[in-house]
């Protein structure tokens, strides 16, 4: 399993970022996928997930309505569009295989939201 995230950076509150994750080494089209994050000094937090069967999407309450998860099963790519970012969204964001926090994840990409 290989997962490689990109697209992080520093933005001001209210700004947007688009994260992507290139996946390989497993059957991406048959796998539920997640985004998880880890803020400084805090534990790992599940942010969003997308089912492989019907691409149904789910979000942690604090990001619902601001973040959008999507996938391209032909290109083996997972995305996370993040709008109206807040300082509390500052974290390392990881793409993760399977649902929840237990599956393998990539090294992550840093997102910093600061005035």
**Based on DSSP secondary structure assignment, what is the total number of beta strands?**
10
Residue share in β-strands: over 45%
Overall mean pLDDT:
97
List the secondary-structure elements in sequence, H or E. EEEEEEEEEE
Q: Based on the structure, what is the oligomeric state of the protein chains?
A: single chain
End-to-end separation: 37 Å
Helix-and-strand structural type: mainly beta
Shape: globular
Relative helix content: under 10%
Largest sheet: 6 strands, mixed
Q: Uncertain regions: pLDDT < 50 for 5+ in a row?
A: none
| Helix count from the secondary structure assignment | 0
Instruction: Give the strand order, joined by hyphens, for the main sheet.
Output: 2-10-9-4-5-6
Radius of gyration: 13 Å
